[in-house]
Amino acid sequence: MILREYLYVDTTAVRGILAQLDAGIVESETSAKESDKKSAGGVKGFVEHAQNWSEARTTTKAMADALFPQLEDALESEGLLEDVSELINSDDFWAEEEVQERLHPGKIVRVTAPGYLIDARFIATILGGFAAVDRGMVNMGITQVAVDPVLPPKAKGPKSKPYKEMPGESENLEGGIPIGRLAFGDENGISGEFLRGVVQVTRGMFAPGLHLSLAPDAEGAGAISVRLQEGRQFLDVEPDILFANYGVGVQEWTVVGTIGHHPLPTPDLSDGDFMFADGEGVRRGEFGRYVNQLGTTLANLGFTDLPQAPGFSLIPWAVYRTIAIAGVGKEDL
Q1: Strand runs (DSSP E) across the chain, as ranges?
Q2: pLDDT category of residue 117 using cuts at 50, 70 and 90
Q3: Residue 273 located in a structural domain
Q4: Which of 313, 218, 223 is nearest to 262 (CA)?
Q5: 140 and 168 share a domain?
Q6: How many domains does one find in the chain?
Q7: What whole-number distance in Å separates Cα of residue 199 and Cα of residue 172?
């Protein structure tokens, strides 16, 4: 028997696939027994009042939580689901560059691999909290901010420019981190500007929301990007609670879903000609292609929320980890 602790279930997608397999889903069972009783009063045909009484017993059995195991079993029995956990954790698989051939887009797979959770909101929260604690310790007189030594005028270097916020920065995630040097840190010090920069990079690379990055235990393996959409079943807790429960370290996760897409080769952007010959207008198709090529270039550099070669994206139907059962080894599950 396998007990699953779900992190995420896309019940909409699960219902849709299961309905195609089973020609409909039974999500509730209802039984009712009804008997009519009638009471009347007044003068019949003139002033009469009547009321029907009924006794009904309804029993409803919700089956939403059982939908995914039902789907997983159905896909396996039909031979539509392939467990590729051993494949992606093999050094030979990544070395032979068979990733796109063996794992084509749309393929239904189950992957169990080490992975870690990422959320830019959580990063902003902990760094903002750290900066607040640092400032509070200074205000309490427990610590103090290191002061740079005063150098002779001739020995002074160029004056540092004052920090300039990006447009809308105060309203973004990093806006809660105060500007200025912190008391904690090494001899070089840590500044609020640095912490804001960390949040900005994280926010740019990982759009706010929960991400799961699977890192197969194989030499040369690429990261498998899993984007978890908010509002889905089980994913209903605040980021700080989620990370308090699961931590920030690597642990083993199982994902069932479909292969999304693989990174494209870095294009040549030098011939991005999307203007008409007379210069009066833009060819929409060419411009759209140019923008996508620019996105591909940035993705291959690791700057955007897209998979980086040789990794790929995985569209999740469910994400869970197996619950340990006393007296039962992992190999027995």
Answers
A1: 4-9, 36-43, 47-54, 82-83, 108-118, 210-214, 224-228, 251-259, 312-322
A2: very high
A3: no
A4: 313
A5: yes
A6: 2
A7: 10
